[in-house]
Write a structure and sequence with these properties.
2 copies of one chain form a homodimer. The first copy, chain A, starts with a helix and ends with a helix. Chain A is an all-alpha fold and 189 residues long. Chain A contains 10 helices and no strands. At the A-B interface, helix 1, helix 6, helix 8, helix 9 and helix 10 of A face helix 1, helix 6, helix 8, helix 9 and helix 10 of B. Chain A binds a DNA duplex (18 and 18 nucleotides) through helix 3.
Chain lengths: 189, 189
DNA sequence: GTCTATAAAGCGATAGAC
DNA sequence: GTCTATCGCTTTATAGAC
């Protein structure tokens, strides 16, 4: 429970929330110090390369979560339950639109250049896993590709707008419509 | 041509690109100095309140552009050409996905709190103008509201993913699909 | 209107005591 | 493993010459 590994994982999760709130540039070490309760010395003990290493580990942590809860369920060809898993995970993770997608946030400005591989890999895998699951569910390749892109982009857009409008309902109902579109496509073929 | 007003407008446009590239926190005064060719003294002459005032004027500049090219055409009830105007303006403005939406970028992190009214107003007006145009084109209120949200959120998502994947084609084809969905809805009713 | 010089604060990062 | 103190640099912002 309190193994060194778990302690560091919890620390990474805490730092992730600070990056979410302030962005990469806005998340200063003093804010991270304040938000984690750890002094700079402790932070550099865990992350010798400093802020860059913190962000890299945060992205790794996010990728592992999505792998387990979204990518792998979708990639298991035989499991039609993958879609249900994805919608549940998306709702769990983004807290009905109160939480942004940090990978998307990093993609927007020059922070992307530092973490281009992780950012590209996250979205590429999500879209490909979803597309593959849709093909296995019977859609042809073009339909599956288009719908997978629509869904992943639609989630990102809904997250931005929920925050811009300060309206979590926006996220909830847009996610609901995306889900209905996907399920309609599955029924139709 | 070189009136003081036009000179400042050109300056604001230049500063906007620097905010786009580095985000609000990442756009330091030295980067703005470098990108505009103006010293700090000159910048504070134009924007006495500093970076906050620069960003506020940038948001105003963006809002004026969208008002003229997108919101007003959509709000003119009799003009079905409003949709064409919007798609053309979106393509012009975002340079086929090479340019991000600064309003959306500001919405993501704590920068939003500084400019909440401008950010909320921009998206609210876009969605409402589009919804109103769709209703005037014959859609019922619920369909128009849903489609307007899908389109605006879809554009934001496509911009994020085009940058994340470093793939402008992603934006172009997703925008194309959004347009087809809208036109299909118009034909169907 | 633009510049240089400079102030005061905050930044990421390091050193070293404990 | 955590802390305090501190370094060197950059930040936003101001002052004042031209």
């Amino acid at each position: 429970m309190d193994s060194p590994d778990n302690a560091k994982t919890a620390l990474v999760a805490r730092i992730a929330e600070i990056f979410r709130e302030f962005g990469y540039e806005g998340a200063s070490l003093s804010r991270i110090t304040e938000g984690t309760g750890l002094g700079k010395g402790s932070l550099y003990h865990f992350f010798p390369a400093g802020k860059t290493e913190m962000a890299a580990e945060v992205l790794l942590h996010i990728d592992r979560w999505f792998s387990r809860r979204i990518f792998q369920p979708l990639e298991q060809a035989d499991a039609l339950t993958g879609f249900d898993d994805m919608w549940r995970a998306v709702d769990d993770y983004f807290l009905a639109g109160r939480r942004i997608c940090l990978v998307g946030a990093f993609a927007v400005d020059s922070t992307r250049d530092r973490f281009a591989a992780a950012i590209n890999g996250y979205f590429t895998r999500w879209i490909q896993a979803l597309q593959q699951a849709l093909r296995h569910a019977g859609l042809n390749s073009a339909e599956a590709a288009a719908l997978a892109e629509d869904v992943v982009a639609g989630i990102q857009g809904a997250l931005i707008l929920a925050r811009a409008l300060d309206d979590t309902d926006f996220f909830t109902r847009n996610l609901q419509r995306l889900r209905q579109r996907l399920e309609l496509a599955l029924v139709r073929q």
